[in-house]
Write a structure and sequence with these properties.
Elements lengths: L1 H8 L14 E7 L5 E9 L3 E6 L2 E6 L3 E4 L11 E8 H18 L3 E6 L4 E8 L4 E11 L1 H9 L5 E4 L5 H9 L11 E13 L7 E2 L1 H8 L17 E5 L4 H11 L11 E3 L2 H9 L4 E6 L7 E2 L1 E3 L5 E2 L3 H5 L6 E7 L7 H9 L3 H9 L9 E3 L4 H10 L6 H11 L3 E3 L14 H15 L7 E7 L6 H22 L9 E8 L10 H7 L1 E6 L1
Length: 519
């Protein structure tokens, strides 16, 4: 047995394969017949078997063995399978659009088969041979259900509107799925945002983040307190198990140290939320950026007079504070080749166009001239005081004059030097663009900004330190880029150009950022 274990080790890998419906006992025998291993077949990806054995879960190169038993797959007409589970917001429109885009780009015919409200398949067929190459199986419910399916070994990919929780991460690690927060396990597919919405009949057009939190906590219960009619507020919230609800809790209620009221009306489905709020003149709801329907979105305002609107550009830059990345999570196991190709396509420039057409916010960087930064410059002038002299504002104009701001921005987790999830994805995206030579022969400046807490001198040092750390992270990631072709610099303006008011957690978080400017 020791000899068998040693030889078998030569063909083992650390990764698994695609999920199959029911594990069946099989025996894998080496070509010379000297070694055999028995176990329950957990998956086959066209190249590798994944077995649950007395040694644990093993992945074995199929080219070196033969398979015997009722569970052995059909090798000649192998059909790759990928099980995808989770967020209905992502699964209803975005992911089907990406599957169809992937099929078109790779010469497949995509055919959808719907079974019920939460289950459907996409079959990809080679039109030349009429053989099915792959089946993508979808279960669209909630983010919580997606992670539950993953941990139960019933899904290969999780669609999530929130980051994985510490408990889910630990359980996945203990199940041999690797670190689910690793770059290869977690990827930001697209961007979304949480918008407060009301009926078009409601005269209220703006709300502060704190008042929004107080309303959903039940502490503000009349529209008159928000500048509206003397009428009770009907509060609508997404189903508690959805990623959108949990992102709302993290982004709206938690910063105010509040909890969701027990009196909220829970609504399942983004379209249903928009319909319910639009038809109730006294409703206040929360919706995805892509699912506001006929409802009226409210502008977020600060006590200092600044406003933050949810637009495609402000979401992409994270200037809008309630931005919500849309994640795909995959465990540390080997997926079929077609599945790996699809996941690579999902982050390509072609996929970004599909994401835009689907109504969501893509991650393709855009360049915004300084001439379109009027509101930001006006905020800088309005916030200037004893610590921010006119000379510093003039330096901003002189330094960035004639340059363009990339929509690729970087922010840090609250109270941490670690970049947030979207920013970690942005490091990868910008590094890839550098490797592709997109910014060759150009000047690129990483510019740090801070909130206004503390002294201006200390904030300048913090902002410069953050700008340096982001620039270093991008340089490190851009392994094959010729950085000698790029004039890469670092600068900081501290608290001199705020995006929002500093008197709230939301405003300070928006103001702490690193921007990228190019010429």
């Amino acid at each position: 047995m020791a000899m068998k274990t040693a030889v078998l080790g030569a063909v083992l890998f650390l990764f698994g394969s695609a999920v199959i419906a029911a594990a069946q006992d099989v025996t894998l025998t080496s070509r010379d017949g000297r070694i055999e291993i028995m176990g329950a077949l957990m998956g086959y990806d066209g190249e590798f078997y994944r077995l649950d054995t007395i040694y644990g879960e093993l992945t074995i190169d199929g080219s070196g063995v033969t398979c015997e038993g009722p569970g052995c797959p059909q090798l000649e007409d192998f059909i790759a399978e990928l099980s995808i589970s989770g967020s209905a917001t992502m699964g209803s429109v975005l992911m089907p659009a990406l599957v169809e885009g992937f099929a078109q780009r790779n010469g497949y015919e995509a055919q959808r088969e719907t079974f019920d409200a939460t289950h459907f398949n996409y079959s990809l067929t080679d039109p030349g041979t009429s053989k099915r190459a792959a089946v993508f199986r979808f279960r669209i419910t909630t983010t919580d259900e997606g992670f539950a399916d993953l941990l139960a070994n019933e899904a290969d990919v999780v669609m999530s509107l929130r980051e994985i929780t510490a408990d889910e991460k630990q359980r996945a690690y203990e199940a041999g799925m690797g670190d689910m927060t690793d770059q290869n396990r977690s990827r930001v597919l697209a961007l979304d945002a949480i918008l407060p919405i009301v009926s078009p009949q409601n005269p209220v057009q703006e709300i502060s983040p704190l008042d929004l939190a107080l309303s959903f906590a039940g502490e503000i219960d009349n529209w008159a307190l928000l500048g509206g009619p003397d009428a009770p507020i009907s509060v609508y919230a997404p189903d508690a198990q959805t990623g959108l609800a949990q992102a709302a809790n993290d982004g709206i209620l938690s910063p105010a140290d509040l909890g969701m009221s027990d009196d909220v009306i829970r609504v399942t489905g983004g379209d249903a939320m928009a319909v319910a709020v639009a038809s109730d003149p006294f409703a206040l709801g929360l919706a995805s950026f892509a699912e506001i329907g006929n409802a009226q979105p409210l502008v977020l305002k600060g006590t200092c007079g600044g406003v933050l609107r949810a637009t495609r550009r402000s979401i992409k830059t994270e200037d809008y504070p309630l931005t919500a990345p849309m994640f795909l999570y995959t465990p540390a196991r080997r997926l079929p080749k077609v599945a790996r190709e699809f996941l690579a396509f999902a982050q390509s420039s072609a996929a970004q166009a599909v994401i835009r057409r689907s109504g969501f916010v893509d991650q393709a960087p855009e360049e915004v001239p300084i001439t379109q930064q009027g509101d930001r410059l006006a905020n800088a002038i309005a916030a200037a005081g004893a610590e921010i002299p006119l000379s510093e504002l003039q330096r901003i104009v002189q330094r960035l004059g004639g340059m363009k701001r990339l929509t690729t921005s970087f922010r840090f987790e609250a109270g941490s030097a670690r970049l947030d999830a979207q920013s970690r994805s942005n490091v990868v995206q910008l590094a890839h663009d550098l490797e592709q030579g997109r910014f060759d022969a150009r000047q690129m400046i990483f510019v740090g900004f801070s909130d206004g807490q503390g002294s201006a001198e200390a904030n300048m040092e913090i902002a410069l330190s953050r700008a340096n750390s982001v620039a270093d992270a991008v340089r490190t990631k851009a392994e094959t880029a010729d950085l000698m072709q790029i004039d890469m610099q670092v600068d900081a303006f501290g608290e001199a150009m705020p995006l929002a008011c500093d008197d709230s957690v939301w405003g300070r978080q928006a103001n702490r950022r690193v921007e990228v400017w190019v010429r």
